[in-house]
Amino acid sequence: MNNNFEPEIIAYCCHYCAFAAADLAGTMRLEYPTSVKIIKLPCSGKVELIHLLKPFEDGADGVFVAGCLEGNCHYLRGNIRTKKRVNYVKSLLKEIGIEPERVEMFNMSSSMGPEFARVANEMTEKVRAMGPNPVKLKGEEVVK
Amino acid sequence: MIVAERKPMEELLQMTAPFGKILVAGCGACVTVCMAGGEKEVEVLSSLLLIERKKNGKELEARKHTVERQCEPEFIKDLDPRAEGVEMILSMACGVGVQYLAERYPKIPVYPALNTKFMGGPVQQGIWTEKCGGCGNCILSLTGGICPIARCSKSLLNGPCGGSENGKCEVDPKNIDCAWQLIFDRMKNLGKLEILAEIQPPKDWSYARDGGPRKIVREDAVL
Ligand code: SF4
Ligand code: SF4
């Protein structure tokens, strides 16, 4: 497996905590991979199953959702609901032979800039070790 | 409503494997409410099929469309333009919807994406239970509105059996309430225990499926 590849990762971040944390990470000049693409949502609970699957269809190597700390969701339970959806999508990916670890859920508060940088790095390293999304690999073969 | 759940992906992948162009057809009624075959589930299943195909370096054209109800010819007409040229239709409706599609498209194989389970309803979001067995001769008036046909594991008419313990059914004490305990409690609350003292004769199952496939004709409504 090519370990030098730069994994493309989609990060769904809630407005109140995770996005603010990502912003703070930037302000603090903390480094995290540029290949982590952030999508801002009003609440992590906005994430539906299809939002977690579509990126894989289009060749993303990993997806994570970052919401508020449990108990601190601005919409009370959005992050708890999405955690269950993330787990369900893991089981769906497993059913079609894709590593379930390519999708994860993280929690952080708006002041946890370093935590955002840490999970972005952690996810990138984990996915790098797994290798590219097989969809992309085979797609390239087809093009050749 | 009719409650169903998606078949395992392994089975669905096998079903769809020979085809390159398919239509994934959802239903906007019962299976939307029980989160098995509505618009969202059509999106999710199509995406899973597509990811799996691409993963193996193959292609798939999955058209998606959800109609109001698949169990009425009037509504499934909407699928006609989408069904044009597809090699198979994967219906995400209950078994009834699948059969209506099969009737409408004699030249296209129509496969079921769901396992149709029972007539019932939600206990809470995400949990559904069986409530009625469609026996054709409803006796809920005798049992306090709790169906012993569908909800007693043995469909007893004069329960409970000896396996009823602490309100639970011996068939699966963790998951099944004893229907006859529920019936007893309810009738006691209603002050109608004397109804339960009457012995019910064996049920005439000819009103149910035992009399062959059933049909209802309402002359006044027939056009
Ligand atoms: S008695 Fe028959 S019709 Fe009535 S709820 Fe039970 S199964 Fe359904
Ligand atoms: S324990 Fe209750 S529900 Fe179970 S079979 Fe006996 S009477 Fe029916």
- Helix fraction of chain A, binned, reads 40-55%
The named CATH superfamily of the largest domain in chain B = Response regulator
Helix content of chain B: 25-40%
Order of helices and strands of chain B: EHEHHEHHEHEEEHHH
- Using only C-alpha atoms, the radius of gyration of chain B works out to 22 Å
How far the N terminus sits from the C terminus of chain A, by CA atoms, comes to 19 Å
Structural class by SSE content of chain B: alpha/beta
The SSE string of chain A, one letter per element, is EHEHEHEHH
Oligomer: heterodimer
Supply the number of helical segments of chain B: 9
Which stretches of chain A are poorly predicted, pLDDT < 50 over at least 5 residues? none
Spatially, the strands of the biggest sheet of chain B line up as 3-2-4-5
Name the average pLDDT of chain B.
97
Strand content of chain A: 15-25%
| Name of the CATH architecture of the largest domain in chain B | 3-Layer(aba) Sandwich
Instruction: Report the CATH topology name of chain A.
Output: Rossmann fold
Distance between the termini of chain B: 27 Å
Sum up the structure in keywords.
heterodimer; A: 144 residues; alpha/beta; Rossmann fold; four-stranded parallel beta sheet; globular; B: 223 residues; three-stranded antiparallel beta sheet; 9 helices; binds iron/sulfur cluster
Describe this structure in words.
The complex is a heterodimer of chains A (144) and B (223). Chain A has 144 residues and is α/β, with parallel strands linked by helices. Chain A has one domain (9-143): Rossmann fold, CATH 3.40.50. Chain A contains five helices and four strands. Chain A has helices spanning 18-27, 49-57, 78-95, 113-130, 134-143, and strands spanning 9-14, 36-41, 62-67, 103-107. In chain A, helix 1 (18-27) crosses helix 4 (113-130). Chain A starts with 8 loop residues before the first strand and ends with a helix. In chain B, a hairpin with a 2-residue loop joins strand 6 and strand 7. Helix content of chain B is 30%, strand content 19%. Chain B has a four-stranded parallel beta sheet, with helices on both faces. A three-stranded antiparallel beta sheet of chain B has the order 1-6-7. The model of chain B has no long low-confidence stretch (mean pLDDT 97). Classes of the chains: A alpha/beta (144), B alpha/beta (223). Chain A binds chain B through residues 48-50, 53-54, 56-57, 92, 95-98, 134-135, 138-139, 141-142, and chain B through 8-10, 13, 40, 43-44, 47-48, 50-52, 54-57, 59. One iron/sulfur cluster binds at residues 132-135, 138-140, 147, 149-150 of chain B.
